[in-house]
Amino acid sequence: MSAPNGIDPAVPPSGPGCVECDRDGGWWVHLRRCAQCGHVGCCDTSPRQHATAHFRATGHPIVRSFEPGESWYWDYSSNEMLDGPDLPEPQHRPADQTVPGPRDRVPADWQQHIH
């Protein structure tokens, strides 16, 4: 299968967590992986919504879930689910990472901060 535009099947993920949240000491609910450059950002339920912010800043339209057991793609430009190729390992965040996570940065009242 050839990859749709916006998906680079050779690029690895940027790391095990949201780039910006890790940098700033934040936390997330779920993670999304940019299918074009590998940037890992937090989902729209998360307080800072870095995956969508990455799309707005770069124009990279397609993300893939970075959660264990999920392989779906989302196209921000068309608001549609897509099929796509396997991406380089790792396919998901560390399995022992909590949701929300990471554990040591999630506030006790985290449910008051989600969208």
TrEMBL record:
Stretches assigned to the UBP-type domain: 1-106
InterPro entries in UniProt: Znf_RING/FYVE/PHD, Znf_UBP
Signal peptide coordinates: none
Species classification: Bacteria, Bacillati, Actinomycetota, Actinomycetes, Pseudonocardiales
Organism name: Pseudonocardia xinjiangensis
Gene3D superfamilies recorded: Zinc/RING finger domain, C3HC4 (zinc finger)
UniProt protein name: UBP-type zinc finger domain-containing protein
Region described as Disordered: 77-115
Pfam family for this entry, one: zf-UBP
